[in-house]
Design a protein that fits this description.
92 residues; alpha/beta; 3 helices; globular; Diverse_PLD-related
Amino acid sequence: MDGRHHIPLSVGFHTLLKQAKLSVEVVSSVWDLNAWDVEPAPSTAAQGQLLFQRLLRLKSRGVKLKIASSLTNSSELKALAADSEWLSHLII
């Protein structure tokens, strides 16, 4: 190790979402946050569901969400896009 403090990616992402004031931009080709069609480890599924809920709560804080993804038929992206003024979904 190089002596620097390392935090898990999920902790860093939650921290960034918590601190967001105006907008959040995410680029991801994979959206399995709720793991409806796979059987992940329980802790992984719980982390994904918590992250999904945090993304949903951005709207109530007035934080805009922009997602760049190649997916066109994701139930999670559809749930996040319930209000198109709040979410920008770019297909890459």
